[in-house]
Design a protein that fits this description.
two-stranded antiparallel sheet; alpha/beta
Length: about 140
């Protein structure tokens, strides 16, 4: 079961459990130019120009977790907190990981940039950046 959490709840989990990983599934362009949470593991769910789901997405997640954490237990047992711009793509990515045997999955519902306000702007009502959580921009 995928748990839905806010960015603040995600930050609390990341601070409390060193085996947890924030998985940013946005495109490379978004990750680099819009910015990203500090120490996020970046594996795009979809990339330009075709915007198809990355064929080896799950394998890339497993491999990256093994490299990052030097796993002493299966990657499928580790807490993964998936984030995208607003929580839609990250939920799809988490659902695929769940089908592939991952058991501790979270979807950051407000995402990195949050929902649009009345002027169609993001970062003004919720999201990782709105809450002032650590992030950087290339």
């Amino acid at each position: 079961m995928i748990k839905e959490i806010t960015p603040l709840q995600a930050w609390e989990i990341l601070q409390a459990d060193r085996s947890s990983t924030l998985l940013d599934v946005r495109s490379t362009i978004e990750f680099e130019y819009v910015g990203h949470p500090l120490d996020a593991l970046h594996i795009p769910w979809k990339e330009a120009p075709d915007w198809q789901v990355t064929a080896d997405f799950v394998d890339k997640v497993r491999t990256a977790l093994q490299k990052k954490l030097g796993l002493t237990r299966p990657a499928e047992e580790l807490p993964i907190l998936a984030i995208c711009r607003s929580g839609v793509r990250s939920l799809s990515a988490a659902e695929l990981l769940e089908r592939e045997g991952f058991r501790q999955l979270y979807n950051v519902i407000e995402g990195f940039e949050g929902d649009r306000d009345n002027n169609n702007h993001r970062n003004t009502i919720n999201g990782w950046r709105f809450h002032g959580l650590p992030w950087q921009q290339s």
